[in-house]
Design brief:
single chain, five-stranded antiparallel beta sheet, elongated, 397 residues, 9 strands, alpha+beta, two-stranded antiparallel sheet
Amino acid sequence: MKRGIATMTLDAGKCPPWLFERMVKLGRSMTDVLIEEYGPDEYIKRVADPVWFQSLGTVLAFDWNASGLTTILTAALKEAIRGRELELGVFIAGGKGATSRKTPDEIEQWGGVLSLPEKTTNNLVYSSKMSAKVDSSLIQDDYTLYHHAFFFSKNGAWTVVQQGMNTQNATARRYHWYSDNPADIEFTQEPHKGIVSQLFRKSTRNLVDKKSKKNKDISIELVESGYKTLMKDIELLRKHSGAVSRMIALKTSPYQAFQGDALKNQQQVFVFAEFDGVEFKHHAVEMEDFTKSKYLERILQRVTYENPEDFESLLSIKGVGGKTIRALSLVSEIIYGAEPSYQDPARYSFAHGGKDVTPYPIDRTTYDQTIGILQHAVRRSKISPSEKDKALHRLLK
């Protein structure tokens, strides 16, 4: 299992200064050891592994299943290397809330300090922006991003650790990305790294799934058809917004459901139901009022004018977000029959497995490697014996 998302309970409150200071101190010492032993590129790669990242946060004294582990651990590591980035060869940009929006500027600043080629710096900035766009627009799972951290090495390897919140069920979900080659990542097709979540959603519009390729291809064809032609399809969807209910009632296909004229207009389009033995699991955000939106129409006018060559180019256009992508995806699905994936990309927990083989058998090798690496780093760290004992105890709990 190497792809996915980690889910934690959503925390409130702040980390006390005395704890944060200690996390910075231990994080600094462990980072020094890990980079000395394995190098900056391997350090970046390990941060992309949710198991390893979660283990490090636990060793540094944070609750294993708390959303604050992500934000505080990132802040502690960023503070731990401050002023020594060039020496270590590791750089951390972004963070929580307003700090996350400064990520591109911080990357560009480091690009100048390192005298990186302009293309390399631009690729890093693009990777930061696209990872955030994908997780907020292509994985429509009702989690709103509020934390984005970009880890990278002087050699160009990078990791994104970002987190979203769902205030309705009081959980947070963390997304991990990694690449050591800009040409080796497809941003819009199954790009994530790591192990995943205990919490599954039954109705996630998952446009990074390979099964969504046809839906995305038709979305691009819709854009290529021009604004007027695209708006005819949008208006048809608005006019016959009860077609999904009719499709289920008549046991017909989405396309056939649009052929009749006796469809009643309804404000809320989508329902959870069964059609011919297949359960339709539509995302909750699709239970929306699909009426006229001047903002949506302006964005659709822009994208048809720019005429992107592929889906990634479409997503990268300024102003294109979840609502624009959803409108195109809905037309592709409901009018042209290209159903996207509704499978939550989360797989299962960030644990190593379970003694009862749930959610999967324990991988002893990986388990022992994680413990061994962190134990070695703690033992070599420049902290007091009592602090080492406490850290080792937390690791073995």
